[in-house]
Specification:
single chain, mainly alpha, 6 helices
């Protein structure tokens, strides 16, 4: 699904910062969802494995951006890779807390912190 989305050009009203923020923030749940799917398919939650899943998802984010660079009307953006990595981290922390042996309240708090960081990063990037 991510590859298909990367293969298309979307018309984002560039004069509205809100829509630019939304368009770039979409990376966060997409790559977070990919990380959770990988972690869940492996059915193991060791910290080393989760770091590996995070690295694989981030590497895919890099490949995705390189691919976008070949699609007419799309560009490569290092900030998108950072958002992909934040999505992987945020959602894996949440998954670890809800599915694994982690603490739920701490996982929700950490997920909230990473989500706010990701949202703030996109807002700053798109409005400055």
């Amino acid at each position: 699904m991510i590859w298909q989305l990367s293969s298309r050009t979307f018309e984002v009203p560039t004069h509205h910062a809100f829509w630019r923020v939304v368009a770039n923030f979409v990376h966060y749940p997409l790559f977070g969802g990919l990380a959770v799917c990988l972690a869940e398919s492996l059915r193991q939650g060791s910290p080393a494995l989760l770091r590996g899943v995070g690295l694989v998802v981030t590497a895919y984010g890099i490949v995705d951006e390189l691919h976008q660079g070949t699609v007419p009307g799309r560009t490569m953006a290092p900030g998108d890779v950072a958002m992909d990595a934040l999505g992987a981290v945020g959602f894996l922390v949440l998954w670890w807390g809800l599915r694994g042996p982690g603490e739920r309240r701490g996982a929700l708090r950490s997920f909230g912190v990473v989500t706010v960081l990701a949202a703030g990063t996109v807002v700053l990037r798109e409005t400055l």
